[in-house]
Amino acid sequence: MTLTIQVAEHVRACFAGIWIQSYEHEDALVEIARLCSNEGWKLATWDIDQGLSVGPGSTSSTGDSAGTDPLAAVRAIRSFAADDTAALVVLTNFHRFLNSAEIMQAVTRQVTAGKHNRTILVVLSPVVQIPVELEKLFVVLEHPLPTREQLQEIALGIATEDDELLDASELSSVLDSAAGLTRLEAENAFSLSIVRHDRLESSTVRELKAGMLKKSGLLRLYHGTEDFDALGGLNSLKAFCRRSLMQPVRDNPLKQPRGVLLLGVPGTGKSAFAKALGKETGRPTLVLDIGTLMGSLVGETESNVRRALQIADVMSPCILFVDELEKAVSGASSGKSDSGVSSRLLGTLLSWLSDHESDVYLIATCNDISRLPPELTRAERLDGIMFLDLPGREQKDLIWAQYLRLFDLDVDQDRPADEDWTGAEVRSCCRLSALLDIPLTHAALNVVPVAVTANETINNLRSWASGRCLDAEHGGIYQFASPKGRSRRKVSRGPLMN
Length: 498
What we know:
- The protein is an alpha/beta fold and 498 residues long.
- The protein has helices at 3-12, 25-39, 70-76, 101-117, 148-158, 168-178, 183-197, 202-216, 235-246, 270-281, 290-293, 300-315, 326-329, 331-334, 341-355, 393-406, 423-436, 440-443, 450-453, 455-465; strands spanning 17-21, 42-47, 51-54, 87-92, 119-125, 139-142, 220-222, 259-264, 285-288, 318-322, 360-366, 384-388, 470-471, 478-480, 489-491.
- It is built from 20 helices and 15 strands.
- Strand 4, helix 4 and strand 5 (119-125) form a beta-alpha-beta unit.
């Protein structure tokens, strides 16, 4: 719903206090001025720089000292009252002045009186920061970011030359990358792309969006060159995620992919897979470190989480990688007291998983499923829970070949016994061999596999995953034979896909 329609409905219903959250004040004011002109309503605007300006499109100030005084601006609203028409007074960035008791009282009196004389007080602000004394007096409206059609109009208005124009598929990719930008940001990104490449390029648009992450400090953009070729095994997981992300879903949002939870033994490639998926599918990978979101003030953590998820929505299409998710939400079900932070954080995450419509694909990793609340893993929160077990012989041979090449080692030398090794331990052995200039069999004496140091924990994890999770390597339902048997697992049905 457009801002014009929202404002028109609420003014006709005589909402005397309207708070508009907008990052594009000039565009919002243009829409409101056009609405007032069409409806025959009075309009006045105020900001701390120009003071009070009367009339649609007027830029002249009142000129007196009271014109830039926020308290005087609120008191002046009553002078716009008329019996036959509504009057709107838009106060730009007025949230900066609502910490004053006098101003809050004046706003309260004005909104109450506005119900009778049809004077509408409109606060235009990029944030919703309403003091508790005023919360019940305001309705909050959101100024929508430009639609895909509006972004296309902006792009075609900038790329006017024949060699700057794109075919349908290339333009679609650029518009996907520009989703979530303001009109000004889109214009800047498209113009920069023309300057750099003499045509529109999605890479330039994504670069500008990446700058948003640096300003927020809540997310990190992962830059890597590894794709699935640099990751041995996990064939079913690779096929599942690649196929999910390559399906056209714009015509049917109900098919939107959600993401997967990667459960498994430490060192089996969960984090490496999440980072490689972005490169494989041409999407930026955003890393969400829950630890950086924790705040010292009450409500700060939850606010940071909401803001981080909003940024991820703006950055779509993208991969959102959350490592060791259980450490962030374990307090919600463990009974340990953390003042309810974990519970509220979990609630925010669950709401986003269920309701978000952006093309954000979540990859969450977990080493201890017992610390995850059951409501997080129910159907339709995610597309599936994948279990990553110790690599089998075929997968391990691929990992050995990869790291022998990476560390420039003799591929024909003897290898150590690696029955219980993860991919991380294979890499460690190769790195130590290269670092110390010793054979692999000697370097292996310095490697103690996690399957030995945490044997009981890993076997418990495998037992829990058996029959409950999908097999990341072979597809189907993961089945764990026994701690003693080294047939590793059986698959109860066919692979997820070819």
